[in-house]
Amino acid sequence: MRHLSTKLLAGTVAGSLLVAAAAAQADRSDWPSNFTVGTASQGGTYYVYGSGWANLVADELGISGGGEVTGGPTQNLALVHTGDISFGLTTMGPASDAVKGESPLAPGVPMDNVCALFPMYETPFSITALSSTGITSISDIPDGARIGFGPSASTSDTYFPAILETLGVDFQRRNGGWSDLGGQLQDGLLDVIAFAAGIPIPAVSQLEVQTNVNIIEFTEEEMDTVLENFPVSEFWIPASTYSTLEEDARAVSMWNFAISRCDLPEDFIYEVTKVTMENNDKMRNMHRSAETSIPENVVHNTVLPFHPGAARWYQENGYEIDESLIN
């Protein structure tokens, strides 16, 4: 009799499992069968981060997904908005432009099918000059100074010139790769380099070895002006970043956020957000910048609406999302 009861119990349990599995499968009926994450060029942080994140989500949720090489933040916004890709990575500056219909890829077209998912990491804006120039502050930069702003159309080249103009700096604009600009600074062909890049910046570290440099910080008043006029956040460059620094230097940074199509299923995005926010150890293993990919940093998005699925996860876990910022 006991043997028969065990069989009946086993059958009941098996049946329950089948019902649960069927229910789970039914819940996924409107999920996409695969997804793509728009990143940037190979070899950059976006490509490594985005591909790693795509693999994590694909493995945890059991669907096919991967990273795709793109033109970076601005193009990712456009590709997500049009539905060509499901997910992308972007910075708050291009996101702000896209929402207002000021994207250079689609002038006059507000991108309203782009929703925020989670915070990634910060891109600091920092300024470097040779000590021999005597430039120790932004106000010291002479009129007509030759300033290197990085690759053309990069985040640095898009926003740093406008930031310096707002602070009253008159300059001649120069573009190029960071290493090339570092060489020009050392040779006296540039007066200043305005970087928007992850720290430590290899070009600055190399300059420190070869010559004396000044890492120029924003004054508190300059920082407040920039915060008021641009989609950036307060940032401190740790003194340990460069041998030149004796104490932390005041700067600003632009946050990077992962984005998705707003029309993706809420349950799907809830699970994507859950996997990402509850596995920071795995995120850090794919790229060390993911140490700031934590829910506490969700407050740094004030530009894009959050996907309802992402917002639900944050709210369920005690993180406040303003209702006006939920799509």
From TrEMBL:
Residues 1-26 form the signal peptide. Keywords: Signal. InterPro entries: TRAP_TAXI. NCBIfam families: TRAP_TAXI. This is TAXI family TRAP transporter solute-binding subunit. It comes from Halomonas alkalicola.
